[in-house]
Write a structure and sequence with these properties.
The complex is a heterodimer of chains A (194) and B (602). With 194 residues, chain A is an alpha/beta fold. Chain A contains eight helices and six strands. Chain B is built from 21 helices and 22 strands. The chains are: A alpha/beta (194), B alpha/beta (602). Bound molecules: thiamine diphosphate (TPP) and iron/sulfur cluster (2 copies).
């Protein structure tokens, strides 16, 4: 459990990173911690590489995580996990959705999607938890709940009770999406335990 | 939005500014979208009792706010940093007229250019226009400072600038809501020519007033509680403001810090006394050496841009490294395929740029989602400077090249950008008669900043019906004789029209009209996706020339190819991710082998 920390969410614009970081932030606040979060809006949201940076603890000044200081990296896309390597340190825990989204150069056949890309992390002894959040969300019945599956996995690394998250989701998520999201969250927790 | 444990709100800087405007009793607010300022007006429009609007541009927005101030209500103008350039004309003279109801301009700078064409430091405007400027360091201060700004504005007869940066605007933190306040100024018409009519005779007097006012504000700065010293050990002293304060506190928790809540005018005595009490003085600020220059002008020696970068954003690590040499990074970046932003699947701009890419012309571009047409594979934009520049520049090219240049250049401009700054350029094309062609990329909305309506959208900021500017009629009224409207999803027809109009020896306008896929009504519309019949695909890659994120290339080995019945030379096939496809049909039109059809045909 991490009492004070820096969480870097990364992925591709449009993957629901903002909501994931928001649910996590709310849960940290509800658990009585201070937090600050920095988001990316504007141009990069059109399918570019994006991050949300969440810092929590007893007192937080900077809303930005410095290179080498992310304690958790939650990557919504496989290659994006590696793009943010400079933010990691040797104790960083990385949660990776192994789903691939091809950037333009790969989609048009100009470059290949890097093979075995996560070896860039594991070869540096960084702890990597892989899962196919897309598939899990699909099984739950809502592919758009990928972000909440990721929140579920992340929750097992944070000093917050499961119930706090459930309360936050009950409070924050519109009723018609609530059950499926809570289910996605719990599936995420199961995968983390496996 | 309250969090249970504390009853505080969890707000972004922009949401906090909107709340601050509401609590300050702002009655009229006008702005033009621009990252990172957009969400201020969007959020403010949800409060009762305050009139909000999207103006066609920042100059109009500021003048609207100024008018409201003249009749005695609290008024707000919001803009991004480059918007201040557009609003600079009223800004400089409103400094002379001063105000009646409090007038505040929120200016959002974008160090690091996350979503901008430059990273100008608009603190320089406060100095140049002789106006006070406040700079908050987090969402709570953003809200509080905005209220303070109205108090200052009315107390000192001055517009006040509140400056944010991306890491204030788009940072979330906890905010305690406060009391709703109001102005003691009475809303009414007051004629006061000596104050409001800035002809030389009056302006000369007001110029004297401005000098006096700034002197008084300098004195105020000495006692302003938001200019504060946090004493620590005396070896290192930092003078800083805004987000840089946060980085300094984190990098040097033990140091003494003079935090400036007001970055112009400066508290001279406070700075001198602070400087005398620390061994070594560091000025930490993003972008220009603004504080540094003015502090050095007081004859105080300090470190500043000799150590701290003047380009891009700062963070804790950069400051620590610049001053102590310590580096927190362990791992270097790994080379990966880049992931730049891309237009959405089904974006109407893509069809237009694809058609344009076949014309071999210089495309004088502009700013919006369509600027992404610059990127491969479309690679169809050759210049992009500021809003409206393409329309004016293409005329300059035509005049420079004469007949030689005919058919070799074209301007592209989005609907919102055209309304913002393109109309005057078009008037110039017609009036001063060049063969220029302007393409208006009319996707019905201001898309890049998040789908805000504009004068041509048919709705206002609240989504209520509004008069819809008719581009065809407007262009004809300006005197353009050839105005053609095309559907950019129909690529061959678009190509044909472009060829004809670009080569026309007279001014012409092509209106490329189809809605942005992220407009709420479009998002709701059920779309029929396309899919690839792999057996028909010859691997010609024609569809990949669009760069649609829903289409990707699947390479195959010779064995796999043989199994699929491909010719020996065929190296792969195109595949559509149905869940991403918005059914625009552009790719299907490009496929000569009937390999892309709508899903229903299956
Ligand atoms: C003076 C100024 N104000 C605001 C902006 C921010 N901005 C850039 S493009 C744009 C509008 C784009 O809308 P439109 O022209 O309709 O193109 P679209 O994004 O819809 O393709 C805005 C608000 C800017 N760059 N410069
Ligand atoms: S937001 Fe609209 S205009 Fe912008 S890329 Fe997407 S579809 Fe095109
Ligand atoms: S129809 Fe073709 S070009 Fe249009 S969104 Fe679908 S895959 Fe992309």
């Amino acid at each position: 459990m991490i009492e004070q920390g820096n969480i870097l969410f990364c992925g591709v614009g449009g993957q629901g990173i903002l909501l994931a970081s928001e649910v996590t932030a709310f849960s940290l606040l509800a658990a009585g911690m201070a937090a600050r979060k920095s988001e990316v809006h504007g141009m990069a949201q059109r399918g570019g590489s994006v991050t949300a940076q969440l810092r929590y603890g007893t007192k937080v000044y900077s809303p930005l995580i410095s290179p080498g200081e992310a304690d958790m990296v939650v990557a919504f896309e496989m290659m994006e996990a590696v793009r943010y390597l400079p933010y990691m340190h040797s104790q960083t825990k990385v949660i990776v959705n192994t789903h691939k989204i091809f950037p333009p150069a790969v989609a048009t056949g100009k470059m290949g999607y890097p093979e075995n890309v996560l070896a860039e992390l594991t070869s540096r002894d960084i702890d990597v938890k892989e899962l196919d959040a897309f598939e899990i969300a699909g099984k739950v019945g809502e592919v758009r709940a990928v972000n909440i599956v990721m929140v579920g996995v992340l929750s097992t690394y944070l000093p917050i009770d499961e119930q706090v998250y459930v309360d936050v989701m009950n409070e924050r998520i519109p009723e018609r999406f609530r059950d499926v999201n809570i289910k996605a969250f719990q599936e995420g927790r199961k995968i983390a335990a496996a | 939005m309250t969090t249970k444990s504390t009853d505080k709100l969890w707000l972004s800087g922009n949401e906090a500014l909107a709340l601050g405007a509401y609590e300050a009793g702002v009655k009229v607010a006008s702005g033009y979208p621009g990252t990172p300022s957009t969400e201020i007006m969007e959020n403010l429009s949800k409060y009762d009792g305050v009139y909000t609007e999207w103006a066609p541009n920042e100059k109009v927005g500021l003048e609207v706010a100024l008018g409201a101030s003249f009749v005695g209500v609290r008024a707000l103008a919001t803009m991004k940093h480059v918007g201040m350039n557009v609003a600079a004309d009223p800004l400089f003279t409103s400094s002379y007229t001063g105000i009646r109801g409090g007038l505040v301009i929120i200016n959002a700078d974008d160090p690091g250019m996350h979503s901008s064409q430059n990273e100008q430091d608009n603190r320089n405007y406060a100095y140049a226009a002789k106006l006070p400027m406040l700079e908050p360091c987090d969402p709570q201060e953003a809200k509080d400072f905005l209220k303070t700004a109205y108090w200052l504005s009315e107390g000192y007869d001055t517009p006040v600038i509140v400056r944010t940066t991306t890491r204030i605007a788009h940072v979330k933190g906890q905010v305690t809501p406060g009391e709703k306040t109001s102005s003691s100024v009475k809303p009414e018409i007051v004629k006061d020519a000596a104050k409001f009519v800035m002809l030389p005779g009056n302006a000369i007097n007001r110029r004297k007033f401005v000098t006096e006012r700034m002197k008084k504000l300098s004195e105020f700065a000495e006692t302003f509680p938001e200019n504060r010293i946090e004493w620590g050990d005396g070896t290192r002293g930092f003078i800083t403001s805004g987000i840089s304060y946060m980085y300094v506190k984190e990098a040097f928790p033990e140091a003494s810090v003079l935090k400036l809540g007001m970055v112009w005018p400066l508290p001279e005595k406070m700075i001198r006394s602070f400087a005398e009490q620390v061994d070594e003085l560091f000025i930490v600020e993003e972008l220009d050496p603004f504080l540094e220059l003015h502090i050095k002008a007081l004859g105080i020696s300090c470190h500043g841009k000799n150590l701290i970068p003047a380009e891009g954003e700062l963070n804790t690590a950069i400051i620590r490294k610049a001053i102590t040499g310590e580096d927190s990074a362990e791992f270097a970046p790994v080379a990966l395929p880049p992931r730049p932003p891309n237009m959405c699947p089904g974006c109407p701009h893509r069809g237009l740029f694809y058609a344009l890419s076949k014309q071999k012309v210089f495309v004088a571009g502009d700013i919006g989602c369509y600027t992404l047409g610059f990127l491969p594979p479309l690679s169809s934009m050759d210049s992009c400077v500021c809003m409206g520049a393409g329309v004016s520049a293409v005329h300059g090219m035509a005049k420079a090249l004469g007949e030689e240049g005919m058919g070799k250049e074209v301007a592209v401009i989005g609907d919102s950008t055209f309304v913002h700054s393109g109309i005057t350029g078009l008037i110039n094309i017609v009036y001063n008669d060049s063969y220029s062609t302007v393409i208006i990329l009319d996707n019905r909305i201001t898309a890049m900043t998040g789908q805000q309506p504009n004068a041509s959208s048919g709705t206002n900021i609240k989504g209520e019906p509004a008069q819809m500017l008719n581009f065809e009629e407007l262009c004809r009224a300006i005197g353009v004789k050839h105005v053609v409207t095309v559907n950019p999803h129909e690529i061959s027809e678009t190509k044909k029209v472009l060829k004809e109009e670009i080569n026309r020896p007279e001014p012409s306008v092509v209106i490329s009209r189809a809605p942005c896929v992220l407009i709420p009504s479009e998002k709701k519309r059920v779309k029929v996706p396309y899919w690839t019949r792999i057996e028909n695909c010859t691997g010609c890659k024609a569809c990949l020339g669009l760069g649609c994120p829903a289409i990707h290339w699947v390479p195959v080995t010779p064995e796999e190819g043989a199994k699929l019945g491909f010719k020996e030379k065929q190296k792969g096939y195109s595949e559509i991710s149905i869940e991403l496809c918005n059914g625009c049909g552009q790719c299907a039109e490009l496929c000569k082998f009937d390999a892309i059809t709508i899903k229903e045909d299956k």
